[in-house]
Automatic annotation (TrEMBL):
GO terms for molecular function: double-stranded DNA 3'-5' DNA exonuclease activity. Pfam families: Exo_endo_phos. GO terms for biological process: DNA repair. Residues 22-253 form the Endonuclease/exonuclease/phosphatase domain. This is Craniofacial development protein 2-like. The gene is LOC115890511. The lineage of its organism: Eukaryota, Metazoa, Ecdysozoa, Arthropoda, Hexapoda. It comes from Sitophilus oryzae. It comes from the Eukaryota.
Length: 303
């Protein structure tokens, strides 16, 4: 049955409100950028957090179809860690600010389709790191989440080096994760519960090849350590989160992609501005009785 014009317009508008976010531990970016950009573009990803980029300093670059924001170690240190965000250039106008917090945390603020988004890219310390290092990292990450406030939407993406397990009746982790829970995972869950966040991977049922984000086939080991996290209560609809194993850049991590829908949001009327205009009109008092004065009357030639 042929579609009418209104159906086509409606579907077109809905497609414009769909975005694809991703995260990928690329294990060094210096010789892989072309491959990474090719895979990101092929999967039509609008925004991607790249971790373990092993790049020094902080800055931004234009890379053709994408803008590249990165935060690495200081110049005097050996290249390591590092986190970055790629954003398709069609969304450039929606970026308001960005900040490299450290070589493990980067943040970008966007205002898009009536939503105020804060995207936090994260590359966490390893689970076997010293307790003090873990305390410092998770405290810094928690501070950045708190700074966003309650009025902004939060998307936290990256390699958290955390295994969060699964649960049938848990609003934080979901029932489709893996069995294993490690110390980083416990810390991540506690932080998410304190901030009313949801670790989305465990809420979408997929085959194992579309679930595990890190694998070593030779040793037959695998885990879920890369995540997409957002608020528990949000008007934004997360339609899917899954691994795409076809994307290759010489890393043993797999690209994780989330499909996001931004529902139509009615913009709030600035009542304060309307009140000011109304007050201004009311304050303009016109002396109507003065029009009865003969000196103010206008006469036509006939009169």
């Amino acid at each position: 049955m042929p579609r009418n014009g209104s159906d086509i317009r409606r579907r077109t508008m809905q497609r414009k409100r769909i975005m694809h976010f991703g995260t990928w531990n690329v294990q060094g970016i210096s010789r892989k950028m072309d491959e990474v950009l090719y895979e990101i573009n092929k999967l039509e990803i609008d925004l991607a957090v790249l971790t373990e980029i092993k790049k020094k300093s902080q800055g931004s670059e234009n890379l053709g179809m994408y803008d590249y924001f990165y935060s690495g170690v200081p110049k005097e240190k050996r290249a390591g860690q590092g986190v970055a965000i790629l954003i398709h250039r069609k969304h450039r106008k929606y970026i308001t600010t960005w900040e490299g917090i450290s070589e493990r945390i980067i943040k970008i603020n966007m205002n898009i389709r009536g939503y105020r988004l804060t995207i936090i890219g994260v590359y966490a310390v390893n689970d076997d790191s010293p307790t003090a290092s873990k305390d410092t990292f998770f405290q810094q990450l928690n501070d950045e989440i708190i700074k966003t406030g309650k009025t902004r939407e939060i998307f936290l993406l990256g390699d958290l080096n955390s295994r969060t397990g699964k649960s049938d009746n848990d609003v934080t982790i979901g029932k489709y994760g893996e069995e294993t829970l490690n110390n980083n995972g416990e810390r991540l869950i506690d932080m998410c519960k304190q901030n009313n966040l949801r670790i989305l991977n465990g809420f979408y049922q997929h085959r194992n090849i579309h679930k595990y984000t890190w694998t070593q086939d030779t040793k037959k080991i695998r885990s879920i350590i890369d995540y997409v996290i957002t608020k528990q209560k949000t008007k934004i609809q997360i339609q899917d989160v899954r691994v795409y194993r076809g994307a290759i850049c010489g890393s043993d991590h797999h690209l994780l992609k989330a499909k996001i829908f931004l529902p139509y949001k009615r913009e709030k009327i600035e009542y304060k501005e309307i009140e000011n205009v109304t007050k201004e009109i009311e304050e303009r008092r016109y002396n109507l009785t003065a029009l009865e004065d003969p000196a103010c009357k206008c006469y036509t030639e006939k009169d």
